[in-house]
Amino acid sequence: GGDEDVGGAVTSGADRSGSRTFNGGLDRPGGTDDPDIGMGDLVSIIMPAFNAERFIGEAVDSVLQQSHQDWELLVVNDGSTDGTATLLQALNDPRIRIFHKANGGIGSARNTALDHARGNLLSFLDADDVMPSGSLHSRIQLLREHPEADIADGCMVEMDEHLEHTLRVFRPSFTGKPFRELLRLTGSCFGGVTWMLRWPVSP
What we know:
Elements: E1 9-16, E2 19-23, E3 43-49, H1 56-64, E4 71-78, H2 84-89, E5 96-101, H3 106-116, E6 121-124, H4 135-145, E7 151-152, E8 156-160, E9 166-170, H5 179-184, E10 196-198
């Protein structure tokens, strides 16, 4: 299921016609002040990166600023030829794990990260996008309120590359089993980068 006012991520899509996305930008009122929500939930954040030196610093920064701090960020440098690898080497937070591979596309990069994910929850953030500070927390709260749900969605705000002007807002409106809607790629639930998923933890 989904909730239209739950945090996701900001997509800043610098590689998408000069726009970027801010995913899951609407926090739920009062949500981030509850210390019990999200306790014990490790979120594995999957970030593929290809020639992302221009924006990846902002993307990583938005993860560091999350109100829910129990996360790991898995960044996969997918054969970048710019300064992405150098920027990643400068990161020293132990929760950030860096992987380097030959270029294989975004799907291959995400799969590499998934192979190493240790969290019981998954979230996604592209290297040219940003998350509002309550993004992880609000979606964790939604999953806790709805233990029958496997996916929590959030709104996505498409902005210009400087994150100053809003170009478009996507608000998921679908609740229930999304399989048919996903096959049709309808706008009611198709976003992907705003999803948080329950993930089985390997023993």
